[in-house]
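For reproducibility, we list the full input for the SN-glycerol-1-phosphate complex.
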Amino acid sequence: MSLFSLISEQSENKKKQFAVLLDPDDLTINQLDEIIPISEKAGVDYFFIGGSLITKNNFEKIAGHIKTHCNIPLIIFPGSVFQVTSHADAILFLSLISGRNPEYLIGQHVQAAPHVANSNLEVIPTGYMLIESGGYTTALYMSSSMPIPSDKPEIATATAMAGEMMGQKIIYLDGGSGAKYPVPREIISSVKEKVSCPVIVGGGLRTEKDIKNACSAGADVIVTGNVIEKDPSLISSFAETIHSF
Ligand code: 1GP
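The corresponding predicted structure, in tokenized form, follows.
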């Protein structure tokens, strides 16, 4: 079964899924060796790997280590064309549909396409939307784009609908890594009501309350990154909250 089919099937069955984002810039092999067994035991559904700005040359190494040390599907969540590796299982082929910067709508994709085609990666077309989250996140700055205002669910919803009509198979609502405030529940619920594809939500989810809020608003896949890197022991309780929702 493809990973996209798995994500869709679980979403249709109203089973919430948990993705842990691993930023290769922030992680050592020792940290990974702590995170991997906790994640396997907790039943983490996916590892996402990627970052808006990667300054260290260890993307391949980190991806290879994850792939050879666990069975959790590894999905690339790329910040740029450089983040393509055959060590992963799939790639979220992100188009930044909330922005108006052609480089992140189609430019990077043109450069990446031949490399992705030469890999064994499953390609998952994903409409990526940055939502205003209380400050400049790295994702926002690096994309030179404007986020969707957090008090305008109607703009977010119309954007997600347009993305789906243009063929995006998943919508990713992101406050950006380290967001001060998570994506508001009004935006999640309004988007979820109007699109039929799975909705991923991440950025600034730090507490059980944040996670429950996102789940109850309609998120199908919950992503946490920063908070897990700081305290991997949170993986177990977050997984339990998400899976028992
Ligand atoms: C960002 O959704 C991810 O794209 C995760 O964000 O690091 O803030 O959890 P955090």
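Residues 102-117 form the longest helix (16 residues). Residues 21, 174, 177-179, 202-205, 223-227 surround SN-glycerol-1-phosphate (CB under 6 Å). Both points were considered when choosing residues for closer inspection.
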